[in-house]
Amino acid sequence: MLQFRKRHLSEEKYEACAVFDVNGDVVPDIVSGAYWYEGPDFAKKHFICDVLAISDYHDDFSDYPMDVDGDGRLDIVTGAWWGETLRWRRNPGETGAAWETFDIDRCGSIETIRYLDIDGCGVPEIFPNTPGAPQAFYKLVRDEAGRGTGSFEKYVIGEGPSGHGLGFVDVNGDGRMDVVLSGGWLEQPADPFAGPWTFHPEFDLGSASVPVLGHDVNGDGLVDLIVGQAHDYGLHWYEQGRSADGSRTWTKHEIDMSGSQFHDLRLVDLDLDGELELVTGKRYRAHNDGDPGAFDDIGLYYYKLGGGRFEKRVIDYGPAGEASGAGIYFWVQDLSGNGYPDIVAPGKDGLYLFENLGPSEGERS
């Protein structure tokens, strides 16, 4: 059983975060919403810019680091539901100076955003989950030296509304990453910029998490799906199979039905045993108080996969204000230097850091 040291970094109620070197001192910092927290102790808080607050939300469901303008400093890519706009914030390179915000595209309400280097160029493309609009991605335009220019090209790869949920999974095993949505998957063609991609409406994942994860849970050589219900109870895995005619089948299995609002998931080797663990938790007040389980206690968990058994381990659990959930975009990275990945958990319950101390003394080899 892993041991964690919990730190409450801030009362700020932003639901996304990231870790990167903001000020160029080669020490990782934590970014969340309107502030960044200076490493290595994250006690000093610095203002980034004002972020729109509306109806107990903030218009910031992603804080992804990317050098958008090619000046050698990492900027932030962001967007959220209320603003209906994909944006980036320019890192001024001066502590205390406000960050300018620039619009990339008014693409519709954004549930959250994920990132994938779809063409192997070394810079990830931006994939917003826009439930009411067709799936698209945005590629950073770079100059001849490979530096970002501050502009993006948009590629629309879906035709109907995307629905709630998004993941990157090589569903058919052809070596190309496909895009999983709540109602099926988009098959990546040989040229990912040639759209639309072929859509396969093979399942209904409900109010699916972002991301939906791909992993061969049962070791049969076929990639399965791991899905949280972002706005209901339930954490499941969908077993990929083959019918007699060779078509794909998907069999739904329960992982954990005791909690709700599993909005963000990660697969990471938390205990350094060479096997991936599933890390997730409750997004506190995901639809404010409108979702099933909204008034339940919140928590952060990891699951040992164990060939589909998914053995649950509790990192934190209890009433909001005492325990922490997982927000809409949490971050996993070793911040202490002990080799074990730590967890940065934002949310409407505040910003928390869970320092991974490794196994308890009796379990160390």
Describe this structure in words.
By secondary structure, the chain is mainly β. Helix content is 0%, strand content 43%. The protein is built from no helices and 30 strands. The protein has strands at 2-10, 18-20, 29-32, 35-38, 44-47, 53-54, 57-58, 64-66, 75-78, 86-90, 100-105, 112-116, 125-129, 136-142, 148-156, 166-169, 178-181, 184-187, 198-200, 213-215, 224-228, 233-242, 248-260, 265-268, 277-281, 298-304, 311-318, 331-333, 342-345, 351-359. Strands 1-30-29-28 form a four-stranded antiparallel beta sheet, with no helix packed on it. The protein has a four-stranded antiparallel beta sheet with strand order 2-3-4-5, with no helix packed on it. A four-stranded antiparallel beta sheet has the order 8-9-10-11, with no helix packed on it. β14 (136-142) and β15 (148-156) form a beta hairpin.
* SSE run: EEEEEEEEEEEEEEEEEEEEEEEEEEEEEE
In percent terms, what proportion of residues is strand? 35-45%
Termini separation: 13 Å
Number of strands: 30
Secondary structure: helix percent: under 10%
Gross morphology is globular
Q: SS-based structural class?
A: mainly beta
Describe the strand arrangement of the main beta sheet, using strand numbers.
Answer: 1-30-29-28
Mean pLDDT rating: 96
Main sheet, how many strands, which sense, barrel?
Answer: 4 strands, antiparallel
The low-pLDDT segments are: none
Quickly count the helices.
Answer: 0
Rg over CA atoms: 20 Å
